[in-house]
Amino acid sequence: MAQTPSPGAGPALDDLLLYRLSRLLSVGGSPVIRLCEGRFGITRREWRVLATLAEHGAKGLGSSQLAELAQLDRARTSRAVGSLAAKDLISRSQPGGDRRQVMLRLTDAGRAIHAELFPMVREINAQLMSALAPQAAQLFDESLARLQAQAEALLPAAADLPKADRRRRAPSGA
Question: DSSP 3-state helix, strand, coil percentages of the chain (rounded to 5)?
Answer without folding.
Answer: 65, 5, 30
